[in-house]
Amino acid sequence: MGKSRFHWLLFLFPFLRLTSSFRRCPLSNRSLIIGSACVVYLLVVVSQVGYSQQPHRRIDKDKYRHTTRGLYNLDISDALPDLVDLQTGANFVDPTRSNVVYITLKTKRLKPAHIRATIRPKLRRKVRRNKEADSAFTHNKLGTLERQIMRNVAPKTSWGGKRDVYYKSLDIIQTDEEADSHISSIRIYSQKAPPWFSQQDVEAMRFLADAKVLRIKEVSRGDSASLLIFEGETSVSVSNQKLTQQRDNVCGGQCGVISSPVDTTEVFAFHLDRVLGLNRTLPAVSRKFSFLHDGQPCPVVSWDASLYPEGLAAGWSTVRLTWGEYQSSLKQRCWHKNISPKPDSGCSTVHHYEWSKLALFDFLLQIHNRLDQSCCGFRPRQEDVCAECEDQNHIQLTNIIHRGHDPRHLVFTNNKGFFDRNEDNLDFRLLQGIKELPEQAVSVLTSRRLREKLLQSLFLDQTYWESQGGRQGIDKLIDVIERRAKVLLTYINAHGIKAITMKT
User: Is the pTM of this model over 0.85?
Assistant: First the structure.
């Protein structure tokens, strides 16, 4: 006990001498010493605080990991509460996409709009370009397709056994990259699609965009250009599939018609048709095939066997009508109010309102291959295919198609529109003889919501959206339609055309 007390005295004695000498120092020296001690203490405290926070930062960074999608996702250990909810049977919603997309409606931009969305890696295989693959719809295009597939997936490919005068088929087995691409290119972020799409439209779009390709068929139609059809994997039952095969020898289940990559207007025309409420086009999407056209996006239109009621050899179920007969039927208002026309009236089977819908649709897209095949209503370019424009009354209308069981209503096919035609060279011949237009379509044009609805509609098709240059490219297409809509509204007011409800 004495020794410990002695050590404390030895330690305390220098401290007492230091404090006594500190009291005898002048006031200025004491202030300087105290200030220096405070600065040293402050530096020590700041360094200790910074060191204590550094491990926490490292832990926060380790919670996140960079994925191949370009996003930072929380580590799996942080998702354990969600897993507990799943095991206990709690409600769990699995969204189709992880992010929300914001679309603004500014018309003029110096830069493309920034769209917040999930970014996924492009599953694209680099292949050597083949000029034969780019030549679409020639007689040997199926041979080119066969060579491409045999080069890429030769061990997995086999010829289908069916070959006859109408078509030949090639079985397709998708590569591993295509099988892993399970994310749909049809983007629907809300609980349901826009109201102008029916449930059948959405199902057809998803099938055309995402269905596994089972086989490719080249379908010959006599003098007309052959079709390239793909058959996809569908959930149709075996009994229904047998009935479908008896009715349609071309497609045993559900199929789509592959068009050339230059015919992208088919997709835009489908969305414009639905937005205007016409509902006369077949569902169409844009899709990439790794074994066709070097992976370029191709329009794919839903296959409808009812357009060929007498078989492929007979061709489309068309209405044969000259320009003069067409103008006469407009004056007689054929089938208006379900009144059957007289046998010698020269009326066709098409209802009077269908011509109004066709004229409005063709004018906005400037499609002349139906009502003005001879290009009599505008100044054609050198590359335009036009017949002679001499005796206009005897010019035959083309591509006037209806379903075999529904001759009163038209189906708009081969919708090859032109966006490069200026307002001073529009084809007003398409509107000749039209006295009424559908009220629903005119109301969309006058409500100034055409751009908003087209943006919402076209955004659903991700492949088409990206192939047109994103928001900036889509805006340019809509600009053209809006300018033509203004010209059409001016024409309606100048000629006293009525907007009436058309329910047929």
Answer: no
